[in-house]
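Self-study notes.
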Amino acid sequence: MATDAAAAECARVGGAGGCCKKGPGYASPKEAMKGPRESLIYVTSVYSGTGREKPDYLATVDVDPSSPTYSKVIHRLPMPYLGDELHHSGWNSCSSCFGDPSASRRYLVLPSLISGRIYAIDTIKDPRAPSLHKVVEPDEIIKKTGLAYPHTAHCLASGDIMLSCLGDKDGNADGNGFLLLDSDFNVKGRWEKPGHSPLYGYDFWYQPRHKTMISSSWGAPKAFTKGFDLQHVSDGLYGRHLHVYSWPGGELKQTLDLGDTGLLPLEIRFLHDPSEATGFVGCALTSNMVRFFKNPDDSWSHEVAVSVKPLKVKNWILPEMPGLITDFLISLDDRFLYLANWLHGDIRQYNIEDPANPKLAGQVWVGGLIRKGSSVLAEAKDGTTFQVDVPDIQGNKLRGGPQMIQLSLDGKRLYATNSLYSTWDKQFYPDLVEKGSHIIQIDVDSDKGGLSVNPNFFVDFGTEPDGPALAHEMRYPGGDCTSDIWV
């Protein structure tokens, strides 16, 4: 497989039609924006934790507007076991391997958050009907590494696959770290050097030109698997740190304490331009977007770039409700940042052409706890109460709040699911577990900014053959802005 340096050089000289034409992905983020329109989406779909004794599955959704099965689930690949809790996903190869003509974006990697299994799904034989290729069993992972609760998967330019793991087999956060699989999905060991494991684990992103990987921190599995309890935050069972590593060396160089403004830092992304040394992390509980950046002395700093203010509310479990930023992404041209407030119910678009000063460019309400008809009332500064209008789509009321989001390569279509994690879904949106998830599409003004709901697109996971299911993360067969990394 190509090294990071070789892939970077080939990408620079090869362009879209040069020597690296046969490698997976695209030479650059801007070349990716010229890629074909998405026609399929793969969606991790969950029965674990819902009370339905069915295996989780990978759904294939038709998103081609010219197709007779547009906005329908056209295939379901059930996993061979119960209780997995499919969550996030990644690829065996992406644009980080663009310089390697022997590499192929063939296998979708599905880590199971609760069972610890990792599935490799073949998407090449039949992209519309993927098939199971291999299962990496948790016993093997634990035996060789001590790791459990796998979460984020990224391919590396070396051909290996790296996964963040959130704890040990007993759910203790101090057992977490990073798992390496080879290109045949054999367990190689841990990525980080001994004694350099993070305090808590969750997501990660690497930026090879700056020889840096940064990871975020959710919390101890033994806490979040029981549902959210504010006392667990006080007890120190949730994270507020970013961990800065040497890349690819695996040495923990710096820990950034985000403090009380950065509780539960979840999704993390560098800007897509591999020469840039800045990025963002969404801090769920405090609902802040924190920007991190490299200093002249090669150390890293952070600052709050966007703050979603909590709402004063009535008839809820707390007197104030955070937005709960559970997902965000950055357009491939690094112009716009999109975030989802799972509890408030809105999706926001920010112009980040000046990353230190994001400007709100669009907002749309597509669910949440303060929608009209809810028992929860938001309180304005003058003491009056209000609720927000949430549209129906094709006669369907939107359930839950916007959670995972995915953007088309050209930046014009934003897809959103509404399930966070089955245990938390049950706690905050019990009707979501009862009635199932959905996927909606938001039309994006990628020139001036602006968001609007597409009234012609609605994928209803409440009508699935085995009963209502929870839809979580989405991937396109050709890669996307939350899985591809450029070197």
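Second protein, same conventions, sequence then structure:
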Amino acid sequence: MRLIDLSSPVDSSFVEPDPVIHDILTPRQGAVHMSAEMREHFGIDFDPDELPDGEFLSLDRISLTTHTGTHVDAPSHYGSKAGYGSGVPRHIDEMPLDWFHRPGMVLDLGDAPTGVIGADRLEKEFARIGRRPEPLDIVLLRTGADARVGDPSYFTDFAGLDGPATHLLLDLGVRVIGTDAFSLDAPFGDIIARYRATGDREVLWPAHFAGRRREYCQIERLARLDQLPAPYGFTVSCFPVKITGAGAGWARAVAHVEE
């Protein structure tokens, strides 16, 4: 079994719309912190200098959104109401785990320019690889956008699904759709330009808003999809972190390839 890391990092040195703040306590600072915490919370006095080398454990404090790095969007991210089930969309901690460990399929869409990818382009790719997704397969879109991770162009130059393309995958029973781009939708600038030109609200974040009518999850900001050896025949694990009441959770996405 070979494991392929499909995740992009959380890196405070990267350009991000919402900057990541990463503060690190060294093992020495961790010792002082531990001593103060023991005194405050448990009434225990302990001199950190009694520790070997005067050090305890390092500690990281990170401020970031749940949409930083590779993450899974929950149905509650798409809106406060759902047009299915109880009408209340589920948070990330409520999603079934078996959605996130499934056979995978990668679609090569690297020729798509900045903007939207339509259903016809997906059908062309299905024909090329000779297969369509099975229900609950995890479909990954390889656009090549991950080559720009850490650069401002990562957030402006990529391709995302339009409404019909998203619904095509959902019609086939797919419940988790992943992309190596910043968003499963087209870039903000492209969306707003098309909306202003047409006045059509259907062009406003159609991939995300499809989730208001049909329950599904997205994996955004994947990486290294070009390392997958074939369009299918591998398993994807992308379990989201269990954050109560959250609209997304970070994930370490990995492909399992039999050898």
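Instructor comment on the second fold: The chain has a mean pLDDT of 97.
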